[in-house]
Amino acid sequence: MELLSKQNSWKVWQGVVLQIVCVLLLATAGGAMQFYWGMTGLVTTELMYLAIAILIAVVHKTSLKEVFPIKKISLVEFIGLCIFFAGGFLINIVAGGISFMIFPDAQQEAQGLNDFMAGTSPFLLVLIVAVLPAICEEAIERGAVLSHLRSIKKDWVIVLLMGLFFGIFHLSFVRFLNTACLGAILTYMVVKKNNILYSVLFHFFNNFISVLATIVSAGAESELDVSSIDISRIAPIYLVIGCAGPVLLVLGNMLMCPKEFRKRQWIYAGSISFILLCLGSGLFMRSIYNEDSIVVKSTFNYEVDRSNLEQRYSFEIDDDGVYIVSVASMLDHGTATLVIKDEDGEVIASDGSKRLALISDTYELHEGTYILEIDSDSDAIGATADIDVRIYSLE
Q1: Distance between CA 168 and CA 284 in Å, rounded?
Q2: Residue 107: what pLDDT?
Q3: Cα separation of 270 and 151, whole Å?
Q4: Is 388 exposed, middle or buried (0-12, 13-18, 19+ CB in 10 A)?
Q5: Which domains are present in the chain?
Q6: How would you label 185-196 residue by residue, b for 16+ Cβ within 10 Å and e otherwise?
Q7: Whose CA is closest to 313, among 223, 385, 383?
Q8: C-alpha 392 chain-centroid distance
Q9: pTM of the model
Q10: Which residues, 6+ apart, have CB-to-CB distance to 211 below 8 Å?
Q11: How far apart (Å, rounded) are the C-alpha atoms in residues 337 and 325?
Q12: 374 with 311: CB under 8 angstroms?
């Protein structure tokens, strides 16, 4: 990494002390301001870090342009940054899945963050949650703290340390892996490009998507109550969703930092992506589709004739909750329609008219009796109908 003109005055131990001070300030002054002042306290906390970052540069008598280097980004580099961000975002999804598996109550903290932001206008949310952290946190972390570590010869050591620092900085065991990965990725860009604008933009993109998700979820009405779902059981699917992350990181890095690209990186990235895909799929199937979670399991067949064109099958749900409902009807010929109704006759799900009719989705079901209606058309007479009904609890 490029050294500062007065690097001798920027000691590594000073950077560690500065990071500790930042964490202590967040736990004390920052926490108090956010508790009593809410969003205003969050703004004050961010500005406090920006002021400290600038003050550190002044104390060391080092140009702000060196501590917070900003350079022009070419179109190709910006495209690379966007692809790199997509890869980093997917990696954070993987990290989130791992965190959910380790800390099943992580969803409560995420809900707490949403509640904290509730009632704030979208414009202010973008400003406070996306813009300010991207500037202020990057100034203190990738600016002031990182400048103390520039003398470390191994870039990967700097990236690792700054990742750990950023994870600790957010004071959350649940989010540690996510924030540590984010911190490492942000640091990598500044280390390789000596341009803090990369990490500022990446940080903004990351937080903006979180804000956007909060705004959309607040305005959407969902009939599915996910609060009762055991998040640790569906968490492995996050590994599948984010499996393309390593490949996108390599592609983005190739455009953004062509001098750092090596062909073998494709092999590493592809291997990691394949492992994430297989591991996530296997763990998800093992977690969801097992005998302990199945509440309804029935497989039967019959020959369709005029007397049974309309078949009825009932099943019981013993507890209110969220369930995966999987119902399939297969005919040799002709078509059938599947309809699931509750005790009041309200349609819960349906599919048809097809030779292979399939209902497969997640539903919030209440305790009671449900009816599966299987209606075959006259073309199905003489066909063999194979029916498979499986319902899994997500709690």
Answers
A1: 29
A2: 66
A3: 33
A4: middle
A5: 7-231 (no CATH), 294-393 (2.60.120.380)
A6: bbbbbbbbbebb
A7: 385
A8: 24
A9: 0.83
A10: 117, 122, 125, 126, 129, 130
A11: 16
A12: yes
Q: Could you tell me the two tokens for 231?
A: 């998040």
Determine the straight-line distance between the first and last CA of the chain, rounded to whole angstroms.
49
Predicted pLDDT of residue 32: 94
Compute the distance between CA of residue 342 and CA of residue 348 in angstroms, rounded to an integer: 7
Amino acid at 190: V
Question: At 203, phi and psi to the nearest 5?
Answer: -60, -40
CB atoms within 10 A of CB 34: 18
Q: Which residues contact 137 (CB under 8 A, 6 or more apart)?
A: 46, 49, 203
pLDDT at 4: 92
C-alpha–C-alpha distance, residues 203 and 135, integer Å: 9
Residue numbers in the chain where pLDDT is lower than 70: 106-119, 218-229
Quote the pLDDT of residue 108: 66
Report DSSP letters for 346-389, one per residue. -EEEEEEEESEEEEEEEEEE-SEEEEEEEEE-GGGTTPEEEEEE
